[in-house]
Amino acid sequence: MIVSDFIADFLYKQGVNHVYEVIGGMITRLVDAVYRHGKIKLISVHHEQAAAFAADATGRLTGIPGIAMATSGPGATKLLTGMGSCYYDSVPAIFITGRVNRNEQKGERLTRQFGFQETDIVTMAKPITKAAWQVNDPDKVPELLHQAFILATSGRPGPVLLDIPMDVQGAEINDSMSFSLNKESLLTPPTDLIEDILNQLSLAKRPLILVGGGIHSANAVHLLRQFVDIVQVPVVNSLLAVDVLPYTNLLHTGLLGTYGNRWVNLIIERSDFLLVLGSRLDIRQTGADVDAFKGGRIIYHVDIEESEINNRLKGCIPVISHLHPLLSALIEAASNSSRMDRQEWLAEIKALRRQWPDTSETQNVKGMNPNVFMHELSRHSKQASVYVADVGNNQMWAAQSLELEPHQRFLTSGGIGAMGFALPSAVGAYFATGKPVVMIAGDGGMQLNIQELETVANHRLPVKMVVLNNKSLGMVRQFQQSYFKERYPSTYWGYSAPNFADVASAYKIENHTLADYKSLPLALEKMWENPRAPFLLQVLVDVSTNVYPKIAFGHPMTEMEPFAKPLDMEGT
Questions:
Q1: CA quadruple 278, 280, 284, 287: dihedral positive or negative?
Q2: What fold, for 191-355?
């Protein structure tokens, strides 16, 4: 068997159904092998970054590494942003790049480049992958591919890169080697720590569970839902955990942090106990005043990596554990206790939520209120399996106000915060689930990977694309309003956006432009008229519409704009 055929067969045996690629000279062998194999579908996108983001979505939704391939040189370098997205958000993915033939590599020569498009992608990728290997020995391919899948899916998941020269791809190897992906031995917490957590939880009057994206990496959402139902503790979520509890669950509380729901930040201040599950408690969750966030409350911080605990926020009780065994142990121990009564605390939260509704935070909105729109979008989009949000104001409005059903997922780019994430990730989300997807983007992010409208059109994917068009780069424009005396170069002055309905029409995608509330129900009904067809809904938003509430930088997280003003310029 030649190497490229082995790779195609190995990927299929690991449950890979799709490979995302932009073909180039140095991966023609690999693409041809996957095509001839016939059991994996090649999805030819139109930019390598899009291939990476589509693979990212696959890893998030299935737990099986998403696969993206690219040729050497510019093909490989354009994968880097997507690799970073997978690395920082703990997403399993395998990136395979083609490299020039071994006899065309510069080796020890003191030249910048020897072969055409020769680029050392391995060195570039090492800081943002769990491993990056140049594979010059054909016989090493089976072992390294096997290791790549183990690395990508074990511990804290992440991406792995294999850079394979063109001649290695065509080399003969012994295909009799057999590998199996052994079940990971999960880090488990000591029994006495489980008892401590539950004892402190029973003593707490105002306990909260704070959940981050690690809950998805651990494939433990179902366990979390079971646990909170037993202990009746309200759940607050980070940006990467918007979907951990359905909107209608009485214990679903909302988004915390810089752009969090105001009532959530207020209840964190009032809480006396926090159980943190799979969140690194970065500055966008705690605000800059970490002492105020810590307060006098007891905080148990659970993470698989010790380095993530007592990092910015000191004084937490560390629990080094995988979330799956931890929650299983908590469920077993808590099941023997009587159901806890949290009615007084839940009533307090409900009152704060009524006092500070998300739809009233932005005062004197001209035209469409994006938070109101998100609620309506949710009520009309129950057929969607996944919401994918881009980065910017659109992302925050979505995270603040979407009403998710039990079966719906929410994907966005967290750690690297990459604009242009939404459209290609929506493509990957559809192929991962086979069900309709709602994409939410701003005009800025939409333009960064707009070429993937052709992928949507070509495959007639049921991606419902919502573009909030405020004709500006709104999040940074709001930053300039706060800190640069309302000077708007590059975000509004000199920036431009097209009419996205016209762009969709050019791709023969049905579309509609929404400008006011009166036609909102009709527009959303039109979007879902054919659930299996693509649709683009352009929503016109006034350029002056800001995202509120927002922590006033330098203040405790309870003091939020527009009522409080920042003390200093935020640096992150």
A1: positive
A2: Rossmann fold (3.40.50)
Provide the b/e sequence for 445-464 (b: ≥16 CB within 10 Å).
bbbbbbebbebbeeeebbbb
Distance from CA of residue 60 to its chain's centroid? 7
Backbone angles phi, psi at 404, to 5 degrees: -85, 145
pLDDT digits (tens, 9 = 90+) for 274-328: 999 999 999 889 988 999 999 999 999 999 999 999 988 999 999 999 999 999 9
Domains 3-169 and 358-548 share a fold: yes
Q: Is 231 left (phi over 0), alpha (psi -120 to 50) or beta?
A: alpha
Q: Where are the domains of the chain?
A: 3-169, 191-355, 358-548
Q: Helix 48-62 crosses helix 422-433 at what angle (to 10 degrees)?
A: 50
Looking at domain 358-548, does it have CATH number 3.40.50.970?
yes
Query: Tens of pLDDT along 451-464?
Result: 999 999 999 999 99
User: CB of 387 within 8 A of CB of 36?
Assistant: no
Residues 105, 167 contacting (CB under 8 angstroms): no
Contact assessment for residue 240 and residue 409, using Cβ atoms and an 8 Å cutoff = no
pTM score = 0.95
Question: What are the b/e assignments for 279-294, b being 16+ CB within 10 Å?
Answer: bbbbbbbbbbbbebbb
Q: Does domain 3-169 bear CATH number 3.40.50.970?
A: yes
